[in-house]
Design goal:
Strand content: 15-25%
Number of helices: 7
Shape: elongated
Strand order of the largest sheet: 1-5-4-3-2
CATH class of the largest domain: Alpha Beta
Oligomer: single chain
Radius of gyration: 23 Å
Amino acid sequence: MSLLLKDRVWSMEAPTAKRGVYPLHGFKLGLYRLPIKLEDPDELKSVHDGLKKAFEMDMYADRIYATYRWKEQNMADPDAKGYEEVDLSVTVEIVTGEVVDIIYQVFPIEKFGDPNWVKDYRKKADHFAKMVIDTILRNTILADKMISHLAKSEKIPELAAIQRLEELTPLAKIVLGAKPKPIEVNDDIEEDDGEIEIPDGSKPGPIDVDYKSKIKPSVAYEAPEHTIKTWGRKGTSNGIMGVWGEFVSVDYDICIGDGGCLEACPVGVYEWFDTPGNPGSEQKPLMSKEPDCIFCLACENVCPPQAIKIYEQK
């Protein structure tokens, strides 16, 4: 069960259950209220458009609907006598505004033609609905809003808030490119969160030491105590990450996340952070304390794929 919904799910075991203006409520209801704001039309559209590859998406006014569909069969052999198949689904509704309500219902199985041979239908539908919710909260602009809320309300650093959100949404599937592009665009900054080809595995090293003159600057990464400059970063979905760090420079598309640099650094410049979807590794060493570097070159010397270059700050 999704930890996010652990203590905030209400079930209604009546054929119909009226609750305000929510049109979907019926046989069983799951409800979670998020203390975040979602009103901007562009942000609503980004949630709708960003998850089209994962779910069947619809949007009406201030409401977004994500539907997950699956099939059930009464026997394994489709050519056998008496074989039956049924299409099942569950829909999650996002009600936007000053707060965000995420709700879903599990209809009676009779809605799908009374296939009485289906096993554990309600349990599966409940699980899939929570998977949809977790996926929405991990991949869309709602993730950024939840991270900001958690950091402020629990008084924790951004990286800890990211980890907290991941703990709360264990059923999430990773959907690359689901977040919108930033509204503010600088002509000198390259930002592409659209369709990009993700290679199979990390690219070969070593890092190009002249990357600053060959690759365009891209959107910086806001670490809790330091803004990390990037070059060649493709959006914020961690597919193609480019080179990060102005003085402690790591080509994350070469990096395989072996952790040698974390162990070698005598002043603790690096810390782990998650990079789901990156072909090199699911975790990277983040130079979150880049200004503390003493230019000893220990990390550069131990990196197996030679993904690191240290530039002495002038």
